[in-house]
Amino acid sequence: MNDEWAYAELEDEQLAFVLEAEASLDADVVLAFRPVRRGTVDPDAVAAHGLQPIDLDQAQLDRLRGLEGRSHSVLVAYRQANS
User: Fold this and answer.
1) Is pLDDT of 83 > 70?
2) Contacts of 75 (CB under 8 A, 6+ apart)
3) How many domains are there within the chain?
């Protein structure tokens, strides 16, 4: 079972969905991940950069899930901790 994560490698069209998510969710950044056997994403390192996951309402979650399907990755919306 894959329970670790790496940053997703996105084509231009997929990257456009990430940028759309940032704009529509009022996120500072949206990161795209893919499941792997040996992860390269350290959650502590993400937090050390001052990024905190955004609490999303149901409509925003539905929007993000739709964009995940179109980008073939797992998307997480973050805001700078000092924002």
Assistant:
1) no
2) 17, 18, 21, 30, 31, 32, 33, 64, 67, 68
3) 1
